Amino acid sequence: MQVPAQAIEAYDRDGATVLRGVVDEAWLDRLAGAIERDIERPGPFFHGYDAPDGGRFHGNLRIWQNDDDFKAFCLQSNMPQIARQFLRSERVNLLYDQLFVKEAATSNRTRWHNDQPYWPIRGWQVVSVWVGLDTVTAETGALEFVRGSHRWDRWFQPETFGITENIDAYERNPDYEPMPDIEAARSDYDIVTWDIEPGDIYVFHGMTVHGAPGNSRRDRRRRGYTVRYIGDDVVYDPRPGVSQPILNDALQAGAPMTSTQNPEIIW
Ligand SMILES: O=C(O)CCC(=O)C(=O)O
Question: Taking all residues of the chain, what is their mean pLDDT, rounded to a whole number?
Answer without folding.
Answer: 96
